[in-house]
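worker-03 picked up job from queue 'complexes'. Input manifest follows; two sequence lines, order preserved.
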Amino acid sequence: MPPSPPSTPLLPLQSFDIAKFANRFAAHLQLLAAALHKASASAATGPTPLLCRLRALHAHILASGFKPRAHILNRLIDLYAKAGDLPSARRLFDAASPAPTDAVAATSLVNAYAASGHLPLARCLFDRTPLPARDTVFYNAMISGYARAGNGLPALLVFCEMLQDGFRPDDYTFTGVLSAAAAIIGLEPTHCGQLHCSVVKSGTEHAISVSNALIALYFKCDSPDTAVIAREVFDRMVERDELTWTTMVVGYVRRGDITEARQVFDDMEGRFNVVWNAMISGYVHCGLFLEALEMFRKMKSIGIPLDEFTYTSVLSACESAGLFNHGKAVHAHIIRSGSDLNPVSALPVENVLVTLYSKCGKIDVAKRIFDDIERKDPVSWNSILTGYVNCGHIDDALAIFNVMPHKHELAWLVMISGFVHNGLAEEGLKLFSRMRAEGAKPCDYTYASTIAACGELGALKHGQQLHAQLIQFGYESSNSAGNALLTMYAKCGAVEEAHIVFLVMPNLDSISWNAMIAALGHHGHGREAIELFDQMIGGGIFPDHITFLTILSACNHAGLVDEGFRYFESMKNDYGISPGEDHYAQLIDLLGRAGRIREAWDMIKSMPFEPGPSIWEAVLSGCRIHGDMDLGIHAAEQLFKMIPRHDGTYVLLSNIYAAIGRWENVARVRKLMKDRGVKKEPGCSWIEVANKVHVFLVNDARHPEVQEVYKFLEILGVKMRKLGYVPDTKFVLHDVESEKKEYALSTHSEKLAVGYGLLKLPAGATVIVLKNLRICGDCHTAIMFMSKAVGREIVVRDVKRFHHFKNGECSCGNYW
DNA sequence: ATAGGGTTAG
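worker-03 finished. Artifact:
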C-alpha cells in the first residue's frame, strides 16, 4: 500500500536557500519517479497517492517562487505524464513553449499520449515539433508508441522519416521497428530478412532487446523457415534475458510446437516465472492439461513465484479437463496463501473461477464469486451468463442478460444459442431481431446460431434472409456460418441447397463433412452419404465419433445393414475410435428395423458397458416394428427403471401397452405415476388424440388443405395443454414474425411420425404427416408402415413428385 | 512477454 498524501508540507520552506531548493526538488522528483516506476498497475481511479504527492511538491515549487530550469521542468512534465495527469503535463509543456531546445519534454508527452491510447494526439505533437528540437529518442517514442498499439505501418513510416531526416537509429529504434513489423499481418519472410539486414548494418544486433524483437518477428511470420532463423538468432545470442526465453517459448507454442517449446524451457537458465506461466498456458492451449498441472506442481515445489497468470492458466486447465476437485484445491490454495493478488490483474482468475464452478454444476457458488467481483468486465458477465445457459437455467440467464450494463457481442451470441439449445428457437430469433434493432453488430457466430434456430423451426424463408444478410456482412466464407447454413437447409428439406452451400464453402472442416453426410442420410440418401464419407477419407479429413454416428444413422435410414456393420467395425479397427452407447444404439436400431432383433440382443450382451436409455429405446422401437412384445416390454421397463421421473418414459411405456391393447397395464402406469407424484397424464391420451388425426403432408403454406391442418394443430395444442402436456418443439405453433402464421415442423417430427405410424390404427383413421418439408428417410419409413397398417393406399405429394404408398412399399422404390 | 468469456455437425 503506497503512503497516503501528506497533509503537512513536504519541506520546511524556510530552511533552504533557493539554490538548495532546486537540488532538493530535483532529488524529490527523482524519488517520486522511482516510486512511480514501482507502482505499476493500480486499481484506484482518480488521483493516485503518488500524483497527490507530485501536486503537493509542484505547489511548493510554485509557492517558493523558484523558477525551475529546463531539466526540472522536463522531469515535472515527465512525472505528470507518467502519473496519468496528461492535462497538467501538457499545460507545463505549452507554458514552456515556444522555445523548447531539447526533445525531452516532447518525448515524455508523446510517450504518455501513446501509452494512454491517444495516438493522434501523440502524432500531432510529433509533427509539430520542429526538426532542430528532435533527437533519436524522440523518434523512438513515436515508433514504439505505434508499435505498442499494433500500428505496424505508421511505425515503419516514422522510421523512414527518421532516416531521411538524417538521424541514426539505435537499438531502441530497432526494438520498436521490429516489434511494429511483427504486428503487420501477412508479413513475408523477405521483409523480415530486409529488416534483419538493416539491423546488422546498424550494428545493433547484439543488443538483447533487438535480438528478442527479431526472434519475435521471425516467429510471427508463421513459416517453418523463419522459425529456424529465429532459432539461429537465439543460438547466436551471447546473453539472454527473461524476454528472450519467453519469446522463444511463446513462439513455439503459437506454432503449435509444444515439444520444441518444452526443450527451450528445459534449457532455460534462470527461474523466470513468466516463462513457466507461458509454458503452462502453452500446455493448456494444446489440450495437455495434465502436463500443465504437473508443471504447476513443480513450480510450487521448487518455489517459483506463483501469480495471477499462473492461477488463471492452471484453473483453466482444471476446468477444461473436468478436474473440478483439483480446481477447488487450487482455489483453496489461492485463498490460503493470502490475498497478495493484484485486484486488477486478478480479474481473469475470478472469471475463470466463475466458469469452473458453473461447469461443475455449482452455479450458486459461481454466482457468489461473480457477485463478489468488484469491477466486473464483459468477460465476467459473459462467464456467468454462459454458466446459467449451460446449466439450463435460461430464465436466470435472461434476467442477467437484461441487467447487463454493456451487452457484449458474445452475450447476444450466448443468449441466442442458449435459447436454441433449450428448445426455444423462436425466442432465439426474436432476440436476434432485438439485437439488430438495438444496433449491435452480429458476428458470424451469431449468424450461425440464429440460422440454427431457423433450422430447428423449419423456417426456411427466415433462413434464406439470414443467408442474404450473411453475404452482405461479408461472412460468406465463414466456416461456422456455412456449416449452420448447410444444416439449416437440410433440416428444412432443401438438400440441394445444402449441397450447394457445401460445394462453395472454401474451407471444409470435419463439421462440414459431418453435416453434409447427415443431411444426405436424413433424407434417405444412404448410398450418397457413404460415397461422401469415402470422399472425406480420401481428402485426408480424419473422421471422428460423430462422423461414425452419422454414417451409421445414414445406413440405418437407408436400411444398409451390412454397410452399417462394416463401418462399425472399421471405426474400431481402422480409426481407433471405441464405439459409445450411441453408436451401439444406432446399430441395434438398424438390426431391429431389419427384424434381426435377436442379433441386436446378442450385441447388447457383448457390449463393454451396461446398456443405457438410448439402447433400450432402440430395442423398443425394433420390437414395436416386428412385434416382439416381450422383449419390447422388457426394454420399456428397463427404460422406466433408469429414468423413473422422466415423463417421456411413462409416455413410451404406456404407448407400447396401448399399442398392443393392454389397457389394464396402461392403467397401472397411470397409478404408478400418481403414486410417484408425477403430475402429467400418461401417454395413452396422445394415442387417443393421434388416432383421430388427419394430418397432411404440406409443402406449401398456400396448400388448399392447409387451413384445416392449422385448425387441427391448434386443437391439438390446446388439448395437449389441457392434459397438462407442454407441447414440445414438434408441435409448437410457430409464429415466425410474418403476417400469416407459419406452422413449421422440424425434422424431429419424423420421429413422431414413426411412432404414430407404427401404432395399431383403428379402421378409417388416417395418419399423415404434416410437413413443409420434402419427404425424407424416417418420414418415408413411417408412411410406408402406415400404409401397411391402414391396408390402403396413401398418396402424398412431395415437392417434386407424388409417392404412392401401398402395403408397406413406395412407388419411388426407396427401401426404408 | 505469459492469463479469462463464444459458434456450427449427431
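worker-03 released lock.
The beta strands of chain A are 794-797, 802-806, 809-810.
The longest strand of chain A covers residues 802-806.
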